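User: C-alpha cells for this one?
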Amino acid sequence: MLKFYFDSGTTNTRLYVIDEKGDVIQIMEKSIGSKDVSLSGDKNLLARELSAMYFETKDKLQYKSKNINDMNDVIWMSGMITSANGIVEIPHIGVPVGKKKLASCVQKFYEGKFFKKDIYFIPGIKSVPDGTEITVENVYKINNMRGEETEIIGILEEKIPDIHHDYKTLTSDSEKSGTFVLIMPGSHTQIAVVKDGKITDIISTITGELFKALKSQTILASSLEETSEKSSNHDSKVDANNLDLNMVETGAKNLEAFGFNRAIYIVRSLLLFTDSSVEQRKSYLEGVLNGGVLKAIKAVLGSAPLNIYVCGNENQFKIIRTIAEKIYPEYRVSFIENNKSMPFSVLGFKAIYACSET
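Assistant:
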C-alpha cells in the first residue's frame, strides 16, 4: 500500500509518497498553505490544490511503474491543514502526548469535492491537559502547535544518542526523569518539553514572522535592508556565512538590560551612529529575538541545568548556543540535523501510522 503523507504548514506544503518498504519514493513541494486560505477567503483552496498534487504525483508514479495504479493508497495529513484555515478543523489534544495518544486521536474525514477519498488527519496539541477550562487568568499557560508534534515523534523515533543517553550535565532529578527541551525554529519557534518520551509542555514564541514584520513594516526596515543589489530576497534573515556572534550576544544582553522595545530600537541606532554592516544589524536582531526564546524557557522551567536541542536549522543553533553560553550557562545546547531524504515529519508519520494499525 502506498502512503501519501502531506505536511502542510502556513506557507508551504510537502507531499511524501512512502512505499510498502517504508522508503520515500516521491517528494513534491508547493508554496501553498493555510495563510493562502486566510488571505483569499476561499475555504476550498487547500483541498483543491493538495488534491492536484496528489493526482499529479500518482500520474508520475504510474508513468514510472504500470503497477502503481493497481495499488491501494491512503492519504494522511498533519500541520496547519487541521486548523480553521485548513481542510477540516480538528481540536488540539492535551498534553501529555506521545505517539500512541496521537495515533488514537487521528481523525478520518471524507473529502468529497476534490480527493473523493477518506483523509486521515493527525491533530495538533495544546499545553494543558484535556478538559482544562481556559480563562483570562490562566491563558498564559496555553500554547499550541500543529505539525511540530509529528516532527517531535520522528525525532524520538530516531533514537539520537545524545537525547536518550547523555544526561551527564543534568541534576540527578532531571536525569531520573529524562527531561529535555526541543527547539523547533520557524516563523513561530516552538519549544517542546519532553519527559520520558512524551511531550509534557509547549512554549510558543514568534521569531521568524516577527523578524520579517520588523524588516518590512517598521522604521527598522532601512537598518535591515541591503543598500545594493546583493540580495534579491528582501525577507531574508542573516546569511549563515555572515553571522556575527558578537552582535548576537550584544542583542541578547540588551534584551536582558532594557527589555524588548528598547533593544530592538537600538537596531536603528546602529545604522545612524556606527559603521555596522547590515549583516551585523541582522545578527543583533537575531540576538534579541532568540534571547526572547531562551528567556521564555527560563520563565517556565527555571534555572536548573537542562539539555536543549535545536532541531533542523544550524544557523539558529549557533545563535541560541551563543546566547546560552553567555547568559544561560546552565543550559547545554546541542544540534539535531534533519535528514532531507527521511525528514523527522515523515519518521513521525510512520511511527503514528504504525501505532494506528495495532
